[in-house]
Known about the structure:
Layout: E1 2-10, E2 13-19, E3 24-28, H1 35-45, E4 61-68, H2 76-82, E5 93-100, E6 103-108, E7 111-113, H3 115-122, E8 126-130, H4 143-151, H5 154-201, H6 207-219, H7 221-237, H8 242-259, H9 264-290, H10 295-314, H11 319-337, H12 339-385, E9 392-398, E10 407-409, E11 414-416, E12 425-431, E13 439-440, H13 447-461, E14 469-473, H14 481-494, E15 499-503, H15 507-510, E16 515-524, E17 527-534, H16 537-549, H17 555-574
Helix pairs in contact: 4-12, 5-11, 5-12, 6-10, 7-9, 8-9, 12-13, 13-14, 16-17
Amino acid sequence: MLRSLYIRDYALIEELEVEFDSGLNxxxxxxxxxxxxxxxxxxxxxxxxxxxxxxxxGAKKAIIEGVFDNADEGRLPSLLESHQIEPDPTGLLTIRRxxxxxxxxxxxxxxxxxxxxxxxxxxxxxxxHGQHEHQSLLRTETHVELLDNFGGLGGLxxxxxxxxxxxxxxxxxxxxxxxxxxxxxKQKELYGFQIEEIDRVAxxxxxxxxxxxxxxxxxxxxxxxxxxxxxYENLGESDEALYDRLVVVRNQLQDLARIDASFEDTLADxxxxxxxxxxxxxxxxxxxxxIEFNPERLDEIRERLGELDYLERKYGxxxxxxxxxxxxxxxxxxxxxxxxxxxxxxxxxxxxxxxALSRAAYRLSxxxxxxxxxxxxxxxxxxxxxxMPHARFEVRFTHxxxxxxxxxxxxxxxxxxxxxxxxxxxxxxxxxxxxxxxxALAKTASGGEISRIMLALKTILAKSERLPILxxxxxxxxxxxxxxxxxxxxxxxxxxxHQIIAITHLPQIASLGxxxxxxxxxxxxxxxxxRIHKLDEAERAxxxxxxxxxxxxxxxxxxSARELIDKGREIERDA
Length: 575
């Protein structure tokens, strides 16, 4: 829900902060007091474009900030994560807009965000309904989603979408393959030559380093032979051999150690050096014996290194790159050599995918029709309770015929276009009066009828609707008396599932609120300011009385207001 709304230097608002409650929040105020300013601020949080004209005169920057809770539920966590927005550990979401003469900026949890991201996040949080707003229920594209939510068809829809995505991938693969056909034919000869060239050499990863090491040894065989022989002689064969001198030192230390034990450690070090020196002499002797003078092998290595170097320079700089190129052109060559067969195999998979998608689309569509019948009956009952006993509500289905469509619908062999959410084009229709044909809900003209139809839909769909916050901006225009009371009661019932913020001018609705706020305009220090405050019990009765009788409060008006409020409490207790 929307916990709080903070506004500074926006239009007539110098600074205000309002904390909302759960349930039904009522906002009233005289015309021009600033209710529309509050609504404008909320629209900025929903991602509406800002105008610098909204800046309060003399201010450099306007700030609008909304704090929402339960941001760790539903789609919001994954949505925030997908846009690299850090979640608040307390489960809150803070949306902030800053408007200055240079433009506007948006923030989500203090992270800068684009308006598109802001709109996407806010669309999963608030649904704003105004007398002339493009409401979510009046947007045709949302009708199928509402139907699926109400019917709990997420599983069937998920299965359909998986098969749709799989088929779309196959179709894309086929289109890419067809585009490549001419290029593959042209490149086939070149690829064949390159494959033969690489396969003839048959390079092995790591081979170059091994051959280079062997080449260095063979090229320096004479130096290695002479040097190892000389080293071995100096260590153990010459008159001044180091080993013989070390043996003399070792014997002297043995004599000293018999006299003084402190020489034992030094004696041990010399003995260790004697062993190490013998091992070095043995290595030099063995190495010298193994040295090969093999010019034929050296020529082979040089030739092999030349071939590898040529391939590396031609195909990417490393043996790994050469082999990766060989794999890539190998696939392309095989494809070019058997293009028709590849297309045929792909077409078989596509036909299987179309059949699977058709089955999923049919099951989903059948369930949607069943859900639609239930909704039609339930909304008719709800509208009757709102003073529209003759209203007829219909959920109409159409399909887009397409000779090349992915889905074969039903058993009649009718091919239709497939869309990411199914094959059904769903739209709500309404007839408010006897003898009138149903018309598209989006084209229904009467404001009062729109209000009641929308409330009926919201009441029926409340348990499945994902949006936790509903904002109603004077949707009660065009209704009064008992109908207004029924609309208020419906709104009150809806508040059991959603937080509702309702701007109203009808006492029948205002009296049903869980909490009541008043918007007022004041003049101070030569400036006009708008403020909002939460009403206590006495102030609430006065506000409802003003809606009943105008500014001229009478005891009769106050008494009627208290009666309306008491009746609202009775309704709550009965519920």
